[in-house]
Design a protein that fits this description.
There is one protein chain. The protein is of the alpha+beta class and 345 residues long. The protein has two domains: 178 residues, no CATH class; 106 residues, no CATH class. Strands 1, 2, 3, 4, 5, 6, 7, 8 and 9 form a nine-stranded antiparallel β-sheet that branches. The longest helix is centred in the middle third of the chain and has 37 residues. It is elongated. It starts with a helix and ends with a helix. 25% of the residues are buried.
């Protein structure tokens, strides 16, 4: 699980870094990549990965004598309607006592979605002034700490992606490493390769155990063989095969085979359905001891209600007859299938 979490996190950071005009967020938090050196004076280097949090734009504040100013990520775009109205905007100087105008709408003003294209870049700059228009919409004047002048566009509030959350340099370095080619190999490709390799080993073990089980069922390997015990064949064997295997076992081995097939490990907690099935097994084995194999198979044919289950039990009962008559398991299976096909016509 930790491997998957690390790989997913690194992939998300890498993906965020590759998307030049989009910040992907989870629960309102996302990552933005610094695209230029305009904020180098503020301690941000090109390709640094910073944390961005979606925020209420009413709470954003500009740089002042007693406040360093909020840093925001935003789409650098401007509507022609907003450009024409700029002389009418009011500069907000007292954020504690601002009287918000009644919000309205300007005719022909484009939405943020209409302004943002695949070529619209995301900027990461500091707010230096906040304006409000006559409809109550806020606009932010921004500036890169390393730039000599403010940005040309005033950024309308719906174009703000989010506010920068203070991210220590060492964390930014970690994020940058995650988004790098080497980071991709070490944190994503390598862990996933190891995970896939481990899954393949597990699958091979399951296939090997299944092959061992088939050898035991077919009589090609003793049930108490070391390989069979190691593969936990008795516990893993399908119930139909257990019913068959008990019947074809020699009388002197039946007591041991009973434990082999139906005594579960102590750490296994049986479900209600499994406990009920164990009761059915006890009944069937009692019938076998008192009345023989025919009634034993008849019990199991009546126990299973679904047609395909009944057919499976019938087929294995024929296989058991042929095997006990001296046929190999493979030959017995072929003959039994022919018998079932003939009787079902």
């Amino acid at each position: 699980m930790p491997v998957i979490i690390i790989a997913l996190f690194s992939s998300f950071v890498l993906y965020s870094n590759q998307r030049k005009n989009e910040v992907n967020t989870v629960f309102g938090v996302g990552f933005a990549a610094i695209q230029s050196g305009s904020m180098r004076a503020g301690g941000f280097e090109i390709n640094d990965i910073v944390i961005i949090n979606k925020t209420n734009t009413d709470n954003l504040r500009p740089k002042s004598d007693d406040y360093e100013g909020d840093i925001i990520a935003f789409y650098y775009a401007q509507d022609s309607v907003d450009r024409g109205l700029r002389p009418t905007f009011t500069l907000i100087t007292d954020f504690d006592n601002i009287e918000e105008p009644t919000r309205g709408e300007y005719e022909n003003r484009k939405t943020a979605d209409e302004l943002i294209t695949e070529y619209t870049r995301i900027y990461f700059h500091r707010i230096v002034a906040v304006y409000v228009d006559e409809s109550g919409v806020r606009f932010f004047e921004t500036k890169g700490d390393s730039n000599s002048s403010a940005d040309s566009y005033l950024i309308r509030e719906d174009l703000v992606v989010g506010k920068y959350i203070n991210t220590p340099q060492w964390i930014r370095s970690v994020f940058k490493f995650c988004a790098s080619g080497i980071g991709m190999i070490i944190l994503v490709i390598l862990p996933l390769t190891v995970l896939i390799f481990m899954q393949m080993l597990s699958l091979l073990e399951q296939v090997s155990a299944l092959m061992t089980e088939r050898k035991v069922v077919a009589g090609q390997m003793k049930f108490d063989d070391e390989e069979s015990i190691k593969a936990n064949v008795g516990y893993e064997m399908r119930e139909f095969d257990k019913i068959y295997f008990y019947d074809v076992t020699s009388p002197e081995d039946k007591a041991e085979v009973r434990d082999f097939l139906w005594v579960y490990p102590e750490n296994v907690k049986l479900s209600k359905k499994q406990r009920e099935h164990i009761k059915a097994v006890d009944i069937s084995l009692d019938i076998y001891d008192k009345k023989g194999a025919r009634e034993y198979w008849n019990y199991w044919k009546s126990y299973y209600k679904k047609g395909n289950y009944k057919n499976k039990v019938k087929l294995l009962s024929y296989v058991a007859l042929y095997v006990k008559g001296g046929r190999s398991y493979e030959d017995a299976l072929k003959l039994a299938k022919a018998d079932v096909k003939k009787y079902n016509k």
